[in-house]
Amino acid sequence: MGQSGIAWLALFVAGLFETVWAIGLKYTEGFTRLVPSLLTLAAMAVSFALLAWSLKVLPVGTAYAIWTGIGAIGTVILGVVLFHEPMTTMRLVCVGLIVSGIVGLKIFSPV
């Protein structure tokens, strides 16, 4: 795996950590709970560091859109699983559109 492949992998992991910190925000209860707050801040740091590292190789617009897309998809899925948020047909369609956008950006990325 070359530098480009490693950058894409780092971006994917950064997106997963974005999901972790977004869900973690719910558990911090407005940063009033110490352990969830510390874990959420750690996940933020890892997510931002991996995103920043991937930007050495990947185009910023593509990488940022994919990072937020992965985070959004993961957060929606975990919201349904952990917090029993509804997964309606239209929400599923919207998540599918985000997935198609991520795939399209990856396919048509110059790197």
Automatic annotation (TrEMBL):
<dbReference type="InterPro" id="IPR037185">
    <property type="entry name" value="EmrE-like"/>
</dbReference>
<keyword id="KW-0813">Transport</keyword>
<protein>
    <recommendedName>
        <fullName>Guanidinium exporter</fullName>
    </recommendedName>
</protein>
<feature type="transmembrane region" description="Helical">
    <location>
        <begin position="89"/>
        <end position="108"/>
    </location>
</feature>
<dbReference type="InterPro" id="IPR045324">
    <property type="entry name" value="Small_multidrug_res"/>
</dbReference>
<keyword id="KW-1003">Cell membrane</keyword>
<keyword id="KW-0812">Transmembrane</keyword>
<keyword id="KW-1133">Transmembrane helix</keyword>
<feature type="transmembrane region" description="Helical">
    <location>
        <begin position="38"/>
        <end position="55"/>
    </location>
</feature>
<dbReference type="Pfam" id="PF00893">
    <property type="entry name" value="Multi_Drug_Res"/>
</dbReference>
<feature type="transmembrane region" description="Helical">
    <location>
        <begin position="62"/>
        <end position="83"/>
    </location>
</feature>
<dbReference type="InterPro" id="IPR000390">
    <property type="entry name" value="Small_drug/metabolite_transptr"/>
</dbReference>
<comment type="similarity">
    <text>Belongs to the drug/metabolite transporter (DMT) superfamily. Small multidrug resistance (SMR) (TC 2.A.7.1) family. Gdx/SugE subfamily.</text>
</comment>
<keyword id="KW-0472">Membrane</keyword>
